[in-house]
């Protein structure tokens, strides 16, 4: 049996269009309705044929839904929730895919006081955006974190778990605050470091932009991929996970200052000890099958 028979997706960019494609593939009996504020995205979704219906307004998109998933930048979640409030069926489950959870839940709860809300975050993505960049297998072997209000495995949580498992994800429950701290360390601050170092390199007057591109090997090349991620999405993530990001940045700044001092004073032991410790962490990541962030990626690749 399908966990949800009528799925409405609002925001058909990388994540929303990947969910639409995944539902068509894994749950072909489910009806997918789409809405995006950008008319050109609506036209593209129609042309791609990844939804059964493309609505002209957020309200019209949700009238028949039993699951509504908001796939817009986290700063736009509140406005969308206000737009659907009047037309949302009483028995529908509302979820989202936002990269931060505490402020998004507060915004959804404020606009939809009586609704069943189960926030979610598929920890899967790329640096690309828009409806053409999505693909059905994006969530396969990836984590999807759900942050239900009381932390309990209630009936709507069980249904949403089944939905994400059908898309190939492995589901875990977490409190919104814990989610935001974990993701600040593992995703948000790393993105900020990438934006920052690529900006620093392009600002250097004695290094031309041509040289930055020409000699981009290894680490810097990886940073340029991450720093190509969507500016609106990431602006919203930092403004909405402010507390946890600032906490991690404070610790990072102290640690970088410690490394700065070690380099200045020729303290090789400090550098060597840290690099030895971090190398062991990377090996632990691979041993646990967590390479590529897929729960079963390592095992599938015989590591
Ligand atoms: N890109 C990634 O790798 C991941 C993103 N996320 C989260 O997923 C959400 C969507 O991200 P992407 O799909 O990457 O973004 P995207 O930029 O590819 O797509 C967002 C879509 O939302 C639409 N939109 C914006 N405001 C709207 C509004 N008020 N009403 C209706 N539509 C609106 C835009 O027109 C656009 O088509 C974000 O909250 C992001 O934090 C979660 C996991 C991974
Ligand atoms: O492309 C990458 O390296 C990512 O880190 C993708 C990503 C971006 C945002 C998320 O909330 C989850 C995953």
TrEMBL record:
It catalyses: prephenate + NAD(+) = 3-(4-hydroxyphenyl)pyruvate + CO2 + NADH. GO terms for molecular function: NAD+ binding; prephenate dehydrogenase (NAD+) activity; prephenate dehydrogenase (NADP+) activity. Keywords: Amino-acid biosynthesis, Aromatic amino acid biosynthesis, NAD, Oxidoreductase, Tyrosine biosynthesis. Gene3D superfamilies: 6-phosphogluconate dehydrogenase C-terminal like domain, NAD(P)-binding Rossmann-like Domain. Its EC number is 1.3.1.12. Residues 5-293 form the Prephenate/arogenate dehydrogenase domain. It comes from the Bacteria. Pathway: Amino-acid biosynthesis; L-tyrosine biosynthesis; (4-hydroxyphenyl)pyruvate from prephenate (NAD(+) route): step 1/1. This is prephenate dehydrogenase.
């Amino acid at each position: 049996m399908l966990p949800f028979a009528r799925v409405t997706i609002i925001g058909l960019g990388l994540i929303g269009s990947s969910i639409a494609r995944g539902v068509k593939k894994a749950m072909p009996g489910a009806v997918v309705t789409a809405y995006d504020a950008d008319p050109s995205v609506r036209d593209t979704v129609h042309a791609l044929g990844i939804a059964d219906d493309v609505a002209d307004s957020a309200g019209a998109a949700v009238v028949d839904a039993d699951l509504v998933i908001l796939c817009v930048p986290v700063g736009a979640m509140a406005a969308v929730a206000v737009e659907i409030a009047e037309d949302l069926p009483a028995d529908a489950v509302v979820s989202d895919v936002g990269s931060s959870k505490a402020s998004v839940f507060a915004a959804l709860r404020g606009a939809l006081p009586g609704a069943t809300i189960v926030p979610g975050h598929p920890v899967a993505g790329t640096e690309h955006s828009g409806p053409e960049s999505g693909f059905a297998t994006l969530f396969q072997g990836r984590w999807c974190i759900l942050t239900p209000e009381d932390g309990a495995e209630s009936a709507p949580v069980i249904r949403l778990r089944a939905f994400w498992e059908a898309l190939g994800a492995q589901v875990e429950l977490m409190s919104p605050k814990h989610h935001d701290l974990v993701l600040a360390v593992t995703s948000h601050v790393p993105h900020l470091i990438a934006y920052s170092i690529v900006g620093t390199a392009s600002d250097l007057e004695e290094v031309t932009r041509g040289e930055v591109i020409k000699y981009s090997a290894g680490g810097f090349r990886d940073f340029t991929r991450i720093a190509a991620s969507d500016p609106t999405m990431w602006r919203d993530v930092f403004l909405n996970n402010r507390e946890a990001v600032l906490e991690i940045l404070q610790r990072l700044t102290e640690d970088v200052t410690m490394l700065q001092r070690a380099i200045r004073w020729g303290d090789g032991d400090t550098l060597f000890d840290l690099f030895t410790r971090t190398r062991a962490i990377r090996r632990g990541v691979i041993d646990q099958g967590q390479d590529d962030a897929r729960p079963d990626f390592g095992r599938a690749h015989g590591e």
